[in-house]
């Protein structure tokens, strides 16, 4: 039988316990950032809405999720809300001194990995009205937009009080490009003024508003465009 000398056994503390915990935390955080970065680059990116051009569908401060699969494996359709890089100076030049500060660099890093939504600098968000080869014009006798000769009912998304366009136009969209417009037509610099957008400038399709909670909504494609024939 083992000898019992009446003394309690005391285990020695394991070495490296705290260091191992720190190492595990660093690994978990690092992997999480890598995954978030890959998701942002290849799958989904969050954007912050900076302007009023898409009201009332989207308002300033909304955070939207943008699917990049649309441009990689899918197709862009009429009625989609898309984010695209400024193709030819649609946006006014801006000066951002915050990016040179420590806080600005931290913000940029968090935006890059997807922890913070992108502030949409250098990008715009609009609704696709016409695809390559389409004829887009305004307006018919009832004041409605037409795509390939078919009038489109835009009441589902057009901002109340706005008309489809205050100026008349007719455009044949070049192949490989898009005719886009904001839902707040009276406050949107879009293809009516700036011309069409090359498809390769599209970052992806916005599919949901995720913040603030009170504005949660899906951004589904309006059925009204189903009536427009192919060119």
Please characterize this protein's 3D structure.
This protein has 231 residues and is an alpha+beta fold. It has a single domain (17-227), classed as Umud Fragment, subunit A, CATH 2.10.109.10. It is built from four helices and twelve strands. The strands form two sheets. Strands 1, 2, 3, 4, 9, 10, 11 and 12 form an eight-stranded antiparallel beta sheet that branches. Strands 7-6-5-8 form a four-stranded antiparallel beta sheet, with no helix packed on it. The longest helix has 26 residues, at 17-42. The protein is elongated and about 80 Å long. Mean pLDDT is 82; it is low at 110-117.
Order of helices and strands: HEEHEHEEEEEEHEEE
| Molecular shape | elongated
**CATH fold annotation:** Umud Fragment, subunit A
Q: Tell me the span between the first and last alpha carbons.
A: 95 Å
Can you identify the CATH superfamily?
Umud Fragment, subunit A
Q: Give unreliable regions as ranges.
A: 110-117
Mean pLDDT: 82
Number of self-contained structural domains: 1
Global Rg? 26 Å
- Strand content is 15-25%
Major sheet attributes: 8 strands, antiparallel
Number of strands: 12
Helix/strand structural class: alpha+beta
Q: What's the tally of helices?
A: 4
Keywords:
alpha+beta; Umud Fragment, subunit A; eight-stranded antiparallel sheet; four-stranded antiparallel sheet; 12 strands
């Amino acid at each position: 039988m083992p000898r019992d000398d009446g003394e309690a056994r005391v285990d020695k503390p394991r070495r490296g316990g705290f260091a191992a915990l720190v190492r595990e935390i660093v690994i978990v955080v690092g992997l999480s950032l890598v995954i978030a970065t890959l998701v942002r680059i290849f799958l989904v990116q969050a954007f912050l809405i900076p302007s009023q051009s898409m009201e009332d569908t989207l308002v300033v401060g909304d955070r939207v999720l943008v699917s990049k699969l649309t441009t990689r494996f899918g197709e862009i359709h009429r009625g989609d809300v898309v984010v695209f890089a400024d193709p030819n100076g649609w946006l006014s030049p801006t000066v951002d001194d915050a990016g040179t500060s420590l806080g600005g660099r931290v913000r940029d890093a968090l935006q890059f990995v997807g922890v913070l939504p992108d502030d949409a600098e250098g990008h715009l968000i609009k609704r696709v009205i016409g695809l390559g080869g389409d004829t887009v014009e305004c307006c018919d006798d009832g004041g409605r937009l037409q795509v390939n000769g078919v009038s489109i009912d835009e009441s589902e998304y057009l901002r109340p009080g706005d008309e489809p366009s205050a100026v008349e136009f007719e455009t044949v969209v070049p192949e490989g490009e898009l005719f886009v417009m904001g839902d707040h037509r009276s406050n949107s610099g879009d293809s009516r003024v700036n011309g069409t957008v090359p498809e390769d400038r599209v970052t992806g399709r916005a599919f949901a508003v995720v913040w603030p909670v009170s504005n949660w909504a899906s951004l589904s494609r309006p059925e009204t465009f189903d009536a427009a024939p192919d060119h």
